Amino acid sequence: MVLEASKVDLKLETTSMTVVAGDSAEQEITLVNLTTLPDNFDLKVEGLPSGWYSFSKPSVNLFPNWNETVTFKVELSPKVRPNQYSGRIIVTSRSQPGVSMEVQIEIVVLAPLKLEARLQPHQATGFKANYNLILRNRSMSDVIMTLQLSADNPYCVGLFTPPEIKIAPSEAQVVKFKVQLAPKTPADQAQQAQPFEVQIQPKWVVGDQTVSTPDLLVDGEYKHQSKWIFIARHPFFVAGAVLLVLTFLLWVIILSFIQNSLLLLTEKLPPAGVVRGSLRVEENIFSSNLQAKVNPLAAFVTMKVRFIEENQQVEISLKSFLVTDKMIGQLKVDPEGDLSFTAGRLVPDTINGGFNFKAEPNRSNDLPWMFIPPNKVVDRLNLKLKTWLISQNQQGMVKAEIEGSTLYLRLQPCPAADPIPAYCKLPNTSNTLGIPNLPNLK
């Protein structure tokens, strides 16, 4: 603040200067002669040690209404204690008594800009060696550091995470980085230990200014090691791991083949026109064919299909040394006569008693049903049924539909012309024929 003014003006860029102990700071001061006479004006500072400050011109000659700029510099010893100090800059006329002015100024002294860094470990070995760079800010100012390997050793390449970091006063942080050989490193150099230097470029935030200080170098050592050294030292472990991966990949590749094998049925069909019983009666034959004739894992996995009498439900069970599970689903028929399967479970009916079917489609994706997906079982049944129907009446069949255990055949209309087509000789009185028995699905 201005303490006193009389026909001379004294303007400062700032009345508060931040200076690091052992460093310096400066600002411009402007003097204006507001008197009617030419005069010499002297500058001085009171309240601060004389060795702390200096003026580029301690005395200025000014004509009336003229002005001039003088540099005010504060330079401190590293031993100055961090604190806030107050003083006054005074300008005085030599020939005109009472013409003077003074302005209060504050000097904020900060601790020296000091940064500590160390490497852990000092030496590391590997194809990519890992290090920790421990950084500590010993000053009273924020510091922003850029990290890289110096260019002294062209055979080392460093990757810092992160490459730039900001640390608050009196805090420490750890930066991880990797060192490896540079591309096209000569073979003789690759076999030698490589010294390197971490180059730390600090920029300090002092007040509203950014101050750069000399780079800090931290030395370390890197010894290259082939990426295959682990294989050479642990051949049995690596061989086992490779075998496990290959087994998994092979299993994924042949899984679809195994699924088809589990569901493959004999292509033999009953003689034309012969029906041996309903679909539910044939469940034992269907299950035994799956287990005895087709299942390549018969020694390990037992499969059985059971047709439930209510709501067109099917139960498919798996049993092995490791797992035993059952999948219940509901068979549905679309307008084209195609079967579909929806996985689910039976839940008690608290109102009417008994059980109701609750659909849970996601169940069919769980283990062990990846080995024998219920939808594929139903697809196989549907394919066999369609094949049999077509073989019985290729010309007269329009549509086949299934509802419960009853098969409905929609036939083409019979023309009145003579001769009557063979398919019109079937014993039907309408275009829909209900047959309660289905073919023997061996």
| Sheet of most strands | 6 strands, mixed
Computed over alpha carbons, the radius of gyration is 47 Å
What proportion strand? Answer: over 45%
Q: How many domains make up the coordinates? A: 4
Number of helices: 5
State mean pLDDT (0 to 100 scale). 75
Name the shape in a single word.
elongated
Structural class: alpha+beta
- The share of residues in helices is 10-25%
Low confidence ranges: 1-5, 264-282, 426-442
Number of distinct beta strands = 28
* C-alpha termini separation: 107 Å
Overview of this structure, please?
The protein is an alpha+beta fold. It has 4 domains: about 110 residues, Immunoglobulin-like; about 110 residues, Immunoglobulin-like (Sandwich), CATH 2.60.40; about 30 residues; about 170 residues, no CATH class. Helices cover about 15% and strands about 45% of the residues. It has 5 helices and 28 strands. Strands 1, 3, 5, 7, 9 and 10 form a 6-stranded mixed beta sheet that branches. The longest helix has 29 residues. It is elongated and about 145 Å long.
Distinctive features:
single chain; 442 residues; alpha+beta; Immunoglobulin-like; six-stranded mixed β-sheet; 5 helices; 28 strands; elongated; disordered C terminus
Brief sketch in words of this structure:
By secondary structure, this protein is α+β, with helices and mostly antiparallel strands. The chain has 4 domains: 2-110, Immunoglobulins (Immunoglobulin-like, Sandwich), CATH 2.60.40; 115-227, Immunoglobulins (Immunoglobulin-like, Sandwich), CATH 2.60.40.10; 231-260; 266-435, no CATH class. 16% of the residues lie in helices and 46% in strands.
